[in-house]
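Hi R.,

Quick one: here's the Pyridoxamine 5'-phosphate oxidase sequence you asked about.
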Amino acid sequence: MDTTAITELTGNEPWDFISDHTFGRLGLTILGQPEIFPVNYTVAGRSIVFRTAEGTKLMGVLLESRVAFEVDEVAEGGATSVVVKGTARKIETEAELEELDLEDLHSWVPTLKYNLVVIDVDEISGRRFRFGPEPDLTPVM
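And here's the predicted structure, written out as tokens:
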């Protein structure tokens, strides 16, 4: 078996990867049901910040703050995926807002999004996948 097809990102590599991107997927549970939402984000220190309008995503964050967040990239020859786990919270005060650098936070969709959400990261991990031919799965007799 080829053990070089999947490698773990180490050290600061997962943070470097998500810092170089602006689109990810927020995973959370809403009323017992798993949900995934695409979001534009920025990295602020060791936290992830995104804007959202009133609605299901914000309700989910307010009801159940434990979330997962994933950023990935597929390129010729391979892919990279970083998964973050943490606690999401809505920014409620001007003091909290002033601590964040939001210059790089831009939405792809031209809708009004007045709510800022921060994910305080507890865990981050990442892997690189090298594409190649599928192994021979023929049973050995």
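The chain has a mean pLDDT of 87.

Cheers,
M.
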